[in-house]
Amino acid sequence: MKNTKVRGKLRFLVYKSGDYYTGVCFELGIVEENKDVDKLRYRLKNGSEAIVKAVIENNLDESHLNKRVALKYYFIWYFGWMINFKDSYSLRESKLVDNFRNRSQLAPSCI
Hints:
This protein is an alpha+beta fold and 111 residues long. It has helices at 37-57, 71-82, 86-89, and strands spanning 12-17, 20-25, 30-34. It has one domain (12-105). Helix content is 33%, strand content 15%. The protein is globular and about 40 Å long.
């Protein structure tokens, strides 16, 4: 599904590897890293909200809502669940966001 200014879906992944947590928003191309999972979630929340808000309010090109992250994060997400890496990577399921107009629910409920 292609995200638009009216409607879209965002998928988030937060996992721990070593001493650091990594947070990913697949559709916006955001990758954050932090030792504190709460700070990481805060940065993902604010970053995703800021991008969606800027695209909508400044009438920017919708391509900003349809970015890609490095292939390794897709492998961690898909294969991690398939072969049960979730314990070693501390994978958490994401919740899809389905309404960009209601940005108040954009990230807090997702991650």
